[in-house]
Amino acid sequence: xxxxxxxxxxxxxxxxxMTGDAVGTAPAEPGAEPAALASLGxxxxxxxxxxxxxxxxxxxxxRSGNLYSAARGGDPFCPxxxxxSSGGDPVVVGNIPAPCNPAGIAFDARGRLYxxxxxxxxxxxxxxxxxxxxxxxxxGVPGSNGLAFDRAGALWVSDGGTGQGRVWRVGSDGVPTEVxxxxxxxxxxxxxxxxxxxxxxxxGLPPGQVTITDNGRAAADTAGSQHLVANGLAFTRxxxxxxxxxxxxxIWRVTFDRRGALRSPTGCDTTFTPNTxxxxxxxxVHPYLDGADGIALDRxxxxxxxxxxxxxxxxxxxxxxxxxxxxxxxxxxxxxxxTGPMExxxxxxxxxxxxxxxxxxxxxxxxxxxxxxxASPTGAVRAKISCLDARxxxxxxxxxxx
Length: 402
Prior knowledge:
The protein is mostly beta strands. It has a domain of 278 residues: Neuraminidase. It is built from 3 helices and 28 strands. The longest helix is centred in the first third of the chain and has 12 residues. 50% of the residues are buried.
């Protein structure tokens, strides 16, 4: 543990902090020290609480310690499961009509469950006795992925599918309004011609295959880094919106005035749309965050994220210090890090003092090939939800539903 504390100090010294501001000014509970986080240890153990027969990505929960996740690829429905964080059989509490490819999932304050799905957001009230069929709450949100509610009850949706970095606010009427964009890593020129333009050429970094789409136009399959720049979303206690940037390995912070209007600066680079965030809005960018996907917050203001490219779990402190809490150890024979317990982790969730994570078993980077580990693209277990066995030093933020 002393060695891990020393490593944590070195990790913090090496983080790249793009702004000197803290994430929020609201009081936080003690326990955000990097050494305490790192002391969880890379030798930590995880228990699989749900070996999923279908793919899963998003994760949320209630105050009773239940977890909720929506399956992908179901027919004629994609079931939404309730799973105890202590394990046990899943319970279907709702269904999304096929074709369906659900991602982010979130409760509102009234106990209704919202699920992002391929340009739409579905909603229903969970019912284990009579699982309802979801209805479409919002449409016109291409690439809908991350979901989060603000203090006024408005739903925010990220474009985690097209690489354009759009983020929308959706009111109670279900009408989305694009509020800002995260600077993209792939421009129209990259997509159309495969060369030049803004951002890095994603064909240059093996392994793994991705297909880039832009406004519905598909490009050739390309090998390399992810192009998604707006993924997981979360609001801090003071109303700051955090955005996970999968492509850069970064966390952005977005602030608003008392009326809810965007306060963060935009329009610094005329290459992009006028509502595109300036780079000064990046809280932290760090190699540990490569593939940052979902976000969960604890009561001390720490930002928990899954670095899916690295099969790792990383914490960013309120002042932007990156601490790697866990990463798969390399296999003794192959030196690959694809044997688990992380298998392309996507969404973290804090239920009390326990961390739980979904694993979609994507065939990329540290999880390539994805034939190893507990989940398999051709086996009975296609994905999984696992929970850290050790208790966290600080619990997660209070949940909206009981």
